[in-house]
Amino acid sequence: MKQKSLSTYDSAISISSSGAKQSGVLDHIAWQLGVCISDLRLIPQVHRTALNFLAHMPYIEDFPLVEWEQAIAYLDGSNVHFLCYDDLRIYFQSMIE
Fold first, then answer.
1. Which end of the chain has a smaller Cβ tally under 10 Å, C or N?
2. Which residues make Cβ contacts (< 8 Å) with residue 75, sequence separation at least 6?
3. Which domain holds residue 71?
4. Whole-prediction pTM value?
């Protein structure tokens, strides 16, 4: 099933070709922390917790790399591009060092 990402980072919800909404990285983190997606960026304590949560997620392959790139861009403004999940793991490792 082909997926398109929305043009805005504020939703991080992808839409499948059937039109059904699917949860993205930011949706997952916000749900886990019990906050709105905008809180992940706007509330400093939640922002730090979200970045820490990102860096320690054990199942990163559950989300496409483009969603990770968009989530990181939304949370800290970094323009990153990952060629593989190992690149993403290296990026996260550098975040926590």
1. C
2. 26, 40, 41, 47, 50, 51, 54
3. 3-96
4. 0.72
